[in-house]
Request: fold
Amino acid sequence: MQNQSYFPERYQSQVAVITGGADGLGKSIAYRLGKEGATLALLDRNSGLLQATVEEFNNEGIQTSGFVTDISDESQVKNTISSIAGQLGKIDVLVHSAGVVGPTSTKITDFSTEDFVKVCAVNLTGSFLMTKYCIEVMQRNNYGRILLIASIAGKEGNPGMVGYSASKSGVIGLVKGVAKEFATSGITVNGLAPAVIRTAMNADTAPEQLAYMTAKIPMGRLGECDEVAAIASFIVSPENSFSTGFIYDISGGRAVY
Reply:
């Protein structure tokens, strides 16, 4: 991880659940929250990578547990959240970072229904399930911070990525609707819409698709995971108390509204 300025007391005594926590954005966000005092519950479906990340974080003094979970499976999500609440006593923060890109550089006429359903199952249904079951726990203490990672593709649409674009648009709608449902509960629900961030997930993106997306960023570069972690650590902090239903931007100037 890059050297950064942390706020070690920001998440003292808080429990943070992070999906996709074994690698990429999820890992970077989890590390930042852990360095700022949070006890971490990391969810990922890659058991080997998850175990390695949990060991790495614990060796750095970050109290971390791992839960192998397919976020698109309701019974697994329900059981995992129940286990976390039972073991750690509460859930203060959810950062839902897990997601898949699906086919790229593929027109809708060539995009299989099976692939579309798979992408939506992870990106949208997974967001729904994690939000639903974490809010049930958060309500017990009348406090919670939820951050769903959307995408600039959900705002503007990326051609050749209909599954990803549609599912991330759905995440944005989910944020706005649920945030208003719980606006007086002490629980905030916000989203973050990154442009292209340098992660392992981009390894599956066609080079021409990646070039198209990068070319639309005025800063002319990819974002870095640590930059996403920095803004995320504010969004889900106690001090960010009068913001809900909002989609924050981290797109290098691509989206300015």
